[in-house]
């Protein structure tokens, strides 16, 4: 389904920098720091003004945000000018010293600065350190700092010193043996990559120190220590709020700050512009390449058909299958495809030439799914074969690892960052694994048989379609259901659902009644119910690079665009 339209709204200028584009750049100084005139506070009174409020906002708060933002953007002289004219200080020098200590990894200095004074009645600055307010869990803050120290020692292969830190600094803080047991287990990690994967930590050179600083600063009053990049965060929240409330969001570019954001329903893909009938028999699934330039379809035909986009001419046919193809997966760079066939073989293809590169060893049951490693050097396939239900292979077709699972797998998905691997068995259980270490994370009993699973682009949400005509969005980190999606019909056959659209704002699904359902991901509201196929719409996907293009397929043998 195509909407012949360009992106509406203002596009971001190349010179414009958004918080999401830059990961919100962090200045180690968090602005400029001058000796305050007030001995205990972080700010001085603003210059006299006949307007105590700025459009209902506290003038001092707005001024400090401006000083911080100007300094973070590199406009030091402008920030200093605002400071002088307003008489408002950004932070006390002690706060700057604490911030720099955390970002430099000077852990003893950070502890001294954080706990260098006796806690008072409020969160202010003391003469020799930061004063924490009543109710602050000092032990928890110490644990966070020393945990970071412990992990960095392990990262540097200083195992002996890490063990000393664990025994003499971390162990006395907590009676929670489970936490300490987990940390002690990290001493056995074979590599830095294994450490980062098991600890869910990105290293000293990643964002871990900044994340720690943010967590620690939450225990200090914002009137003393501004959260990092506060104005950028506020602006990003405003943008995201407008995107979240945009029912027919089709603008991939970050919204402009100059005007309120909205998208026109007329530009949303709702009309069938083209029907492709090159597949023979039922079509069970469609998949765009990651760059959106090709579309592959599979079903009970013995061949996979690949069309070029946007003209949809057949550019390749992958034959050599028997009994139909149940699934396929494009490699991260779109150069290869793995097909999962009912004839119990998985096949690796050159997507450019159509050459069969490898035909893997025969499984005992049909192949049901495939997930590529983020680096594209290996892939994992699933099967209904209980003896070999999940196996990982390299590009030479050599078995790298048999996961040793005894449950059958009817669908498999993985997160883009490699963190999660999710398998659905043929009963009512979803098995969640660490995709890097291949160790089990947790299981979810659904009470109703799931049919298909997929993971959002940001690796945070699991989409589960179920036989009771309900789809669910589950937060992988907390295992909680964040959204229930209703309106489609499903039964014993596999109906595929997917994330998609601009900024992945939507969830789509086929339906047993032939319709196509599109929900707004954040609200769960049905945005569109479109006629699709007769008798059944088996799958529907957005083009990952074109929010105006949808492809669907069904038992009628058609692929609709």
From TrEMBL:
Region Disordered: start-end pairs: 1-54
SUPFAM superfamilies membership: WD40 repeat-like
GO biological process: proteasome-mediated ubiquitin-dependent protein catabolic process
CTLH domain ranges (all copies): 91-161
GO CC field: GID complex
Positions with biased composition (Low complexity): 7-20
WD repeat intervals: 276-317, 318-359
Compositionally biased spans, kind Polar residues: 21-32
Key words of the record: Repeat, WD repeat
Function comment: Involved in the proteasome-dependent degradation of fructose-1,6-bisphosphatase.
Protein name: WD repeat-containing protein
């Amino acid at each position: 389904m195509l909407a012949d339209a360009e992106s509406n709204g203002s596009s971001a200028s190349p010179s414009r920098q958004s918080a999401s584009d830059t990961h919100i750049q962090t200045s180690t100084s968090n602005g400029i720091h001058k000796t305050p005139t007030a001995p205990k506070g972080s700010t001085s009174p603003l210059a006299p003004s006949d307007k105590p409020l700025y459009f209902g906002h506290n003038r001092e708060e707005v001024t400090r945000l401006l000083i911080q933002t100007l300094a973070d953007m590199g406009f030091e002289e402008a920030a200093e000018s605002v400071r002088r004219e307003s008489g408002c200080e950004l932070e006390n020098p002690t706060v700057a010293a604490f911030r720099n200590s955390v970002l430099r990894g000077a852990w003893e200095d950070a502890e001294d600065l954080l706990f260098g004074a006796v806690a008072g009645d409020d969160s202010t600055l003391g003469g020799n350190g930061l004063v924490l307010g009543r109710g602050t869990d000092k032990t928890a803050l110490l644990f966070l700092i020393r945990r970071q120290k412990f992990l960095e020692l392990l990262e540097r292969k200083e195992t002996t010193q890490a063990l000393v830190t664990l025994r003499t600094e971390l162990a006395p803080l907590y009676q929670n043996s489970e936490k300490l047991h987990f940390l002690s287990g990290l001493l056995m990690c074979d590599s830095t990559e294994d450490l980062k994967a098991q600890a869910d930590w990105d290293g000293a050179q990643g964002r871990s120190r900044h994340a720690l600083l943010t967590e620690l600063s939450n225990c200090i009053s914002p009137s003393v220590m501004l959260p990092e990049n506060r104005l950028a965060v506020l602006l990003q929240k405003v943008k995201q709020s407008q995107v979240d409330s945009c029912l027919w969001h089709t603008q991939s570019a970050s919204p402009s700050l100059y005007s309120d954001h909205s998208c026109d329903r007329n530009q949303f893909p709702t009309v069938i512009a083209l029907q492709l009938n090159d597949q023979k028999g039922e079509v069970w699934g469609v998949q765009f390449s990651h760059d959106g330039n090709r579309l592959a379809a599979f079903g009970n035909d013995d061949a996979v058909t690949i069309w070029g986009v946007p003209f949809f001419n057949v550019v390749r046919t992958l034959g050599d299958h028997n009994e139909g193809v149940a699934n396929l997966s494009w490699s991260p760079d779109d150069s290869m495809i793995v097909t999962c066939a009912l004839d119990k073989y998985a096949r690796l293809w050159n997507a450019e030439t159509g050459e069969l590169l490898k035909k893997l060893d025969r499984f005992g049951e049909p192949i049901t799914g495939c997930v590529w490693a983020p680096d594209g050097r290996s892939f994992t396939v699933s099967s209904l074969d209980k003896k070999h239900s999940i196996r990982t292979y390299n590009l030479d077709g050599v078995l790298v690892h048999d996961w040793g699972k005894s449950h059958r797998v009817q669908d498999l998905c993985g997160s883009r960052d490699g963190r999660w691997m999710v398998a659905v068995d043929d009963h009512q259980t979803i098995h969640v694994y660490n995709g890097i270490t291949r160790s089990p994370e947790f299981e979810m009993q659904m009470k109703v048989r799931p049919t298909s699973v997929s993971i959002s682009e940001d690796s945070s949400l699991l989409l589960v379609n179920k036989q009771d005509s309900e789809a669910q969005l589950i937060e992988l980190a907390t295992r909680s259901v964040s959204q229930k999606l209703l309106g489609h019909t499903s039964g014993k056959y596999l109906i595929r659902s997917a994330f998609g659209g601009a900024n992945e704002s939507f969830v789509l699904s086929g339906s047993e009644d032939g319709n196509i359902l599109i929900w707004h991901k954040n609200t769960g509201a049905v945005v569109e119910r479109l006629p699709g196929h007769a008798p059944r719409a088996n799958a529907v996907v957005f083009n990952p690079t074109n929010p105006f293009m949808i492809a669907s397929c069904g038992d009628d043998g058609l692929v609709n665009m």
